[in-house]
Amino acid sequence: MRVPEIYHPHPAPPYRALPHPLATIRAGISGFPSPAEDYVGRTLDLNERLVKRPSATFFMTVTGDSMVDFGIQDGDTLVVDRSIDARPGHIVVALVDGEVIVKRYEMIGKRPYLCSGNSRYTPIPVADLDCQVWGVVRSVIHEYPV
Amino acid sequence: MIGLVDCNNFYVSCERVFQPRLEGVPVGVMSNNDGCVIARSNELKALGVEMGTPAFELQQWVNQGRIHLLSSNYELYGDMSARVREVLEEFSAGVEPYSIDEMFVLFDGFDAATTRQLARTLYRNVRQFTGIPVCVGVAPTRTLAKLANRAAKKLPEYGGTCVIPADGAETRRLLERTALGDVWGVGRRLVERLALQGIETAWDLRQADPKAIRRRFSVTLERTVRELQGMPCIELNDADRPRDRIMTSRSFGRHTGDLGELQEAIRQHAQRGAEKLRRQDSLARAILVFLKTNCHRSDLPQYSPSVVVELPEPTDDSRPILAAAHQGLEAIYRRGYQFMKGGVMLFDLVDANRQQLSLLDTPERAAQRDRDHQLMAALDELNQKMGHGTVRLGMPSQNAAWHLRCAHRTPRWTTNWLELPKGAT
């Protein structure tokens, strides 16, 4: 039986760990061992670096060009963490009138706004909208064609 | 104390996390193969749509845009269920999944105020972290925790969490308001028989003499009485309970990371589960396969995955169940981990006698089903007479594709790179 492919439900363990470069740095010339030596032989795991809380982390694909000044481009993958309470300055995924949008949450004067990273779009005042934060963007993954 | 965390309208809630437009409107989830409703939002319940309603009866409402019907997306539900479990595990080492959307959480060693606070935190965090709304009931026994959970869900004054002690005015009031049929493990036939004795509410049953109940009814019901009195005596996989899901799992004799050994263990569990399914005249729609490493060995790498595989159609036939278990195991297995425990859960059960036949059903398929039925009956009889494992099925090889009808399945938002949700900038 083959139901459409099954993907690993949750990449909790390091799926593909990379070898850590050997630490060759010495602390000064005194010969005391460097703290970095404790990590010799460890491997690096991108999940561990990017996904702080797996249960609350979701990936999302970006559409549109309104966030390019914040380094978020059409087609990029966002790492969204729902366990963080949104504060001004965070890039958030918000539900606005039933749509899912990505903006920067800012306070202008004493009023909250959703701002774009593109001068062609003006800030949207939140007060007049049915708006809810879905999650906070922790990082963006941009893959280059190679 | 034992907490029960129950996800509200779980399948519909999973869909709503990624489709905010489904919020507040009637939504149903359909089984993919037999085309009937297997999950409903509150709005759909309010329209009088029952579980098991065939999709074609609702087609007109769908066309009018009054309701939304979605195909089931078990991959999504399995992933969201694992996330809920993970959030709970941040608070308690004792989390026992009871079904895909219900989990018992052990709350030991807290005073009453802390317990209440913890229940609120679980309620809030699961909702925030995963997007799934839940209710939390906490009490000294599983039966009372179930009852508290029901109160948390149905009675607005509790606001989603309800903590009750073994005794006291509040516990009494709740038990008095709970009909017998809503007590865990009390089926319809028992309700009728108990009514003849003048026992009509959970409180009446609690007041009954456990020994007399044992004589007149069963040990199982006696345990329910004691549980209602606040004395824990039901284990999670109590064999005598009628089930809405079948769990078979066990710790391995020793740690193992060998795929062959794991396959053998999962095969046994799946076959045992299928036998239990046939004994209680149920069919399953889906199977969950899980593995666990030893969480007490922090020196070893930890990995406790689970996955849900949908069965090609509701079935009690060991062969497709084994095939699905095998496929699930392959999907979650990773080398380099020492597993300590594994098992399967068969869920979304339907009554075998009330099974809706697929629209695609043909006389040939009906005849095939009869033959399958006889084969399974023969298998069970042999195993019963000659001892377990006399006749066993091997793990099937991957072959024939099954045709799934899942035209309305939503994307696998969390488990497929090509189907991630979109965020417009």
Automatic annotation (TrEMBL), chain A:
Signal peptide: none annotated. SUPFAM superfamilies: LexA/Signal peptidase. Residues 31-137 form the Peptidase S24/S26A/S26B/S26C domain. Pfam families: Peptidase_S24. Keywords: Autocatalytic cleavage, DNA damage, DNA repair, Hydrolase, SOS response. GO terms for molecular function: DNA binding; hydrolase activity. InterPro entries: LexA-like, LexA/Signal_pep-like_sf, LexA_repressor, Peptidase_S24_LexA, Peptidase_S24_S26A/B/C. GO terms for biological process: DNA repair; regulation of DNA-templated transcription; SOS response. Belongs to the peptidase S24 family. PANTHER family: LEXA REPRESSOR, LEXA REPRESSOR-RELATED. This is Translesion error-prone DNA polymerase V autoproteolytic subunit. It comes from Halomonas nitroreducens.
UniProtKB/TrEMBL annotation, chain B:
The keyword DNA damage applies. GO terms for molecular function: damaged DNA binding; DNA-directed DNA polymerase activity. Keywords: DNA damage, DNA repair, SOS mutagenesis, SOS response. Residues 2-187 form the UmuC domain. GO terms for cellular component: cytosol. One of its GO terms (biological process) is SOS response. InterPro entries: DNA/RNA_pol_sf, DNA_pol_Y-fam_little_finger, DNA_polymerase-Y, DUF4113, Rev_trsase/Diguanyl_cyclase, UmuC. Belongs to the DNA polymerase type-Y family. This is Y-family DNA polymerase.
